[in-house]
Design a protein that fits this description.
The chain has 368 residues and is mainly β. The chain has one helix spanning 234-237; strands at 2-12, 19-29, 36-41, 47-52, 59-63, 80-82, 86-93, 103-107, 116-120, 138-140, 142-143, 152-154, 171-173, 179-183, 193-195, 197-199, 209-216, 223-231, 244-249, 264-270, 273-279, 290-297, 300-305, 312-316, 332-340, 356-366. A hairpin with an 8-residue loop joins strand 11 and strand 12 (152-154).
Length: 368
């Protein structure tokens, strides 16, 4: 912001005594307001950190390694989990302003490896279906909102915009203590479908650690359940540069490109970077309860089923992948969704079961 100082002055024209007044404007530069850091408790000493500035239109940059931030440092976009010892430093910048002073806060939770530090257990002590926690989950909404040529309309909790129906929600926490994500066909024989896509974007994110969800998946033609993450910076550099981590994806039922075994897949995506590996041991059924997880460390992504020690089936590193590795550039947010149709599964057919649902017992984050 520029503050204007107006000075009045008198002058003589030098040609017979005439005179007048005029103005000259000078400017002074203001300084952006230093960021403030606030925290909310997570679990076992971890906190979710938020950073803000009172300067309108300012951008906040931060570091977590103790170095002084600059406009080339990561941009703060959304609250993120702190579960390790670190020093957070932040500055604010705005057009026309001098950069703010540095705000600094050290965290020393001293949390042991393997400690649960955040979770949503989808608890419901009422006698009716409840909304997913609005302090954790928001929604993508609309028809083909997110690419892939999907066929469903994604509906938020209590949405009254047709074909969404608040009397028959597509996402709710049941009295059984599970998150239900339900794909529906409101009118039999009519190719109109509804479902839900929940995300923690803008509310919760994390970088590094172990995340897992215990889930039961639908198996029917055209069903595409997924548990995945996207970089917070998708708002500034778009996809796929932001990075995408697909902890679990599953389409239809048995693998149409194989001998009919049941399977799930873990994948990664970045600029000119993609990789996916299927998990399909003998006797595996995605329709049964399983825990799907990811171990995220600097320079490495691993996916597992049921056990983070004995169940790892995929490991990705920059050395094993071509393209740009985006997974060390900042926190990511969580997505749970059940798509209907699209490029990968194809469309529903006469065998497709409606309603079909994806059940989630919990989502948990642990320290590495």
């Amino acid at each position: 912001m520029l503050a204007a100082v107006v000075l009045a002055w008198a002058f003589l024209c030098g040609c017979g005594g005439g005179g007048g007044t005029g103005t000259v404007t000078t400017t002074t530069q203001t300084t952006a307001a230093a960021p403030t850091i606030s925290t909310t408790a997570a679990q076992n000493g971890a906190v979710v950190v938020s950073v803000a500035t009172t300067t309108s239109g300012a951008t906040v940059y931060y570091t977590v390694d103790g170095t002084t931030p600059s406009s080339s440092s990561p941009q703060y976009i959304a609250p993120f989990l702190v579960a390790s010892n670190l020093t957070l430093k932040a500055i604010a910048t705005a057009a026309g302003d001098t950069a703010s002073s540095v705000t600094s806060q050290s965290f020393a939770p001293n949390i042991a490896s393997g400690t649960l530090v955040w979770s949503d257990e989808f608890s419901n002590s009422t006698n009716a279906n409840a909304a997913p926690n609005p302090s954790v989950w928001t929604y993508d909404t609309g028809t083909d909102c997110c690419g892939n040529n999907e066929l469903e309309t994604y509906c938020a909790w209590a949405s009254t915009t047709g074909p969404c129906n608040p009397a028959s929600p597509n996402a709710y926490v049941g009295t059984d203590g599970y998150l239900h994500i339900v794909a529906q066909q409101p009118t039999a024989g009519v190719a109109t479908y509804t479902s839900a896509r929940l995300k923690t974007e803008g509310l919760f994110s994390f970088q590094y650690g172990r995340i897992e969800a215990r889930m039961m998946l639908p198996e029917s033609q055209g069903m595409w359940p997924a548990f995945w993450l996207l970089g917070n910076n998708i708002t500034t550099i778009t996809w796929p540069a932001c990075g995408e981590l697909d902890v679990m994806e599953h389409v239809n039922g048995s693998n149409p490109e194989s001998e009919g075994y049941d399977w799930v897949q873990g994948s990664i995506h970045g600029t000119n970077l993609t990789g996916g590996i299927q998990y399909h041991p003998s006797g595996f059924s995605a329709a049964a309860w399983h825990t799907y997880g990811m171990i995220w460390t600097q320079g490495q992504i691993q996916y597992y089923v049921d056990s983070p020690t004995s169940g790892v089936y995929a490991t990705f590193t920059p050395a094993t992948q071509t393209g740009t590795w985006p997974f060390d550039q900042g926190p990511q947010f969580v997505i749970l969704n059940l798509a209907v149709g699209g490029i990968w599964p194809g469309s529903p057919d006469a065998t497709t079961v409606f309603p079909s649902q994806m059940l989630v017992d919990y989502v948990r984050v642990y320290t590495n």
